[in-house]
Amino acid sequence: MRPLTLTTPKPLLHLAGRPILAHALDRLRATGVQKIVVNAHYLADQIGAFLADQPDVVLNREPQLLDTGGAIMAMQAKHLLPDEPFYVVNGDAFWVDGPTDTLARLANAFDAKQLDAMLLLARTAGAMAETGLGDFLWPRGGNLKRREERDVAPYLYAGVQIVSPTLFAEAPPAPFSMNVLWDQALATGRLGAIVHDGVWFHLSTPEDLAHADAVLEAREVGNTT
């Protein structure tokens, strides 16, 4: 996302007139989340200033990058996370709900007795940007599986998930990616997913951001709040 991120952390870049992070916080609050932990490393002081007047949000500063899985483990070690399933939302994730609230759909589909994690997937064909080769295949009547080297996968991770603390029972030392834990859960049949039924924006470049802003400004998709 350079050069935009040379002076501003990506979650604070504006989309539809507000920081991307503000949209995510609103979605979490709307679905009933009462405590939100924001993990920050790059330009963390700016994120801290943005969150200063939001008492339901705790800022966790990550001095050393621990990757997506290691960061959550570090927050668990500080007792910042609950001993029950919780949402994990990427700071740059942005979506427009379909017929029902996306976070509620995810929670309703998640069964902690059978699953360790539930991912929100987006269709590569409907994404508002270049998405590469995708992440997952999900054959009709079959099981979710990873894209192999020569595959072109129709689904990709949309930056939103629900995870159970059980997902981290056999986690490696940090730093490590959530992909390691997803693969463990996938191997034991404990990784689930739903496919987003609204619009999802892949925000990787300034052009992606400008295009998403134009689409939202033109009201080509539904309400963003």
Structure notes:
With 225 residues, the chain is an alpha+beta fold. The chain has one domain: Alpha-Beta Complex (Spore Coat Polysaccharide Biosynthesis Protein SpsA, Chain A). It has a 4-stranded mixed sheet with strand order 5-10-7-11. A two-stranded antiparallel ribbon has the order 1-2. β3, α2 and β4 form a beta-alpha-beta unit. The protein is globular, with a radius of gyration of 17 Å. The model has no long low-confidence stretch (mean pLDDT 91).
List key phrases describing it:
two-stranded antiparallel ribbon, 12 strands, alpha+beta, single chain, four-stranded mixed beta sheet, 27% helix, 225 residues, Spore Coat Polysaccharide Biosynthesis Protein SpsA, Chain A
Which helices and strands occur, and which strands form pairs?
Elements: E1 14-15, E2 18-19, H1 20-30, E3 36-40, H2 44-51, E4 57-61, H3 67-77, E5 86-89, E6 94-96, H4 102-109, E7 117-123, E8 136-137, E9 145-146, E10 155-163, H5 178-187, E11 191-195, E12 199-201, H6 206-217
Parallel strand pairs: 3-4, 7-11
Antiparallel strand pairs: 1-2, 5-10, 6-12, 7-10, 8-9
Helix pairs in contact: 3-5
